[in-house]
Specification:
Strand order of the largest sheet: 4-3-2-1-5-6-7-12
Shape: globular
Bound molecules: NADP nicotinamide-adenine-dinucleotide phosphate
Number of strands: 14
Number of helices: 11
Distance between the termini: 33 Å
Radius of gyration: 19 Å
């Protein structure tokens, strides 16, 4: 069976994706900054090391790969966006792409496709959109920090396609999962009975359930007609309030108190990131659906049930 190399494969998406790939009989190599911390549990998963700052990578891993999934990058929502953190978010993505590119150039390999993560942070606010339908892949990038990260991130991996390798970029929405990611942040106050709604709560949230996202990566690997940029969001775009209240009902029945956190307070607490969580963004899933992808969790409620 083919071998899939996953950069940043130790993270939330990479771990779930590894599980799916193994189930389907693929071999997986995880490229990590801490290869010594992991031991291969069987013959199907291996860990290989890289050092992005020093631009060093285990080239045997590249030589073995049939497909590369590029997920590595400093967590966008993990810490407040200080100047240093912003630089880390950007540089971890650019430098890891550059390292992959130079490794592909210097190694004899048989890589057929690279599937790279990107994010819907590319897009601007709904109100700046000329119509009511979601942003499609050809919409221009917004002009803020996250959009600039996405733009630079996507261009940093672009030269791969000049090497006759099929390149797919998945502009990923908020990933809903059992543990980690955005839902974790809403679940924590719910354990004390508080349903925390951000601002007015009417801002639209474009999300995808983790299982569907992993299936989309697999779909991109297995379908040679898939190339270029695709939004990785479910059709069931919701609002922040609906997301939080639905989650609260599932976790607490009716025993919760909705609490609105004013935008001003959010700006004080999390700084520039507040603009992102208060931003209404409706993103279209039409292109990936037209390519033949079907969602297991197109609607919010079933997706949330899967996450609790
Ligand atoms: N989760 C979401 O809602 C979401 C939405 C849109 C896009 N994405 C993107 O999808 C990708 C994977 O997301 P995830 O949720 O699985 O993230 P994650 O859990 O934070 O995992 C990312 C992995 O990247 C590696 N990494 C972290 N900091 C790094 C750095 N400074 N330099 C190089 N590598 C670093 C880590 O692997 P090692 O420590 O093993 O090296 C980590 O396990 C990310 O690029 C993320 O931005 C995620």
């Amino acid at each position: 069976m083919p071998t899939v190399l996953i950069t940043g494969g130790t993270g939330m998406i990479g771990t779930a994706l590894t599980g799916l790939l193994l189930q389907r009989g693929y071999r997986v190599i995880i490229l990590t900054r801490h290869a010594d911390d992991y031991s291969a549990d069987d013959n199907s998963v291996q860990y290989a090391g890289w050092n992005i700052d020093e631009q060093r990578v285990d080239k045997t891993a590249i030589a073995k790969a049939d497909h590369i999934i590029h997920l590595a990058g400093a967590g966008i929502g993990d810490k407040k966006w200080s100047k240093t953190r912003k630089l880390d978010i950007l540089q971890s993505r650019i430098k890891s792409s550059e390292l992959l590119l130079s490794a592909l150039k210097e190694t004899s390999h048989h890589v057929k496709s690279v599937i790279s993560s990107s994010a819907i942070g590319w897009y601007g606010k709904d109100e700046n959109k000329p119509d009511n339908i979601g942003f499609s892949e050809d919409a221009p990038a917004a002009n803020d920090f996250l959009a600039n990260v996405c733009k630079t991130w996507e261009s940093s991996i672009e030269p791969v396609s000049e090497k006759a390798i099929r390149l797919v970029k998945l502009r990923t929405g908020i990933v809903l999962s059992k543990s980690g990611g955005a839902l974790e942040k809403f679940k924590k106050p719910l354990s004390a009975g508080l349903a925390v709604i951000l601002g007015g709560g009417d801002q639209r949230v474009s999300w995808i359930q983790l299982t569907d996202l992993c299936r989309m990566y697999l779909f991109a690997i297995e379908n040679e007609n898939i190339q270029g940029i695709y939004n990785a969001v479910s059709p069931g775009v919701t609002t922040n309030k609906k997301l939080v209240i639905n989650l609260a009902k599932l976790l607490r029945n009716n025993f919760f108190i909705p609490v609105h956190i004013p935008g001003l307070f959010l700006r004080l607490a999390i700084g520039e990131m507040a603009a992102e969580v208060l931003k209404s963004v409706t993103v279209s899933s039409e292109k990936i659906k037209a390519a033949g992808f079907t969602f297991l969790y197109p609607g919010l409620e079933a997706a949330l049930i899967q996450c609790i």
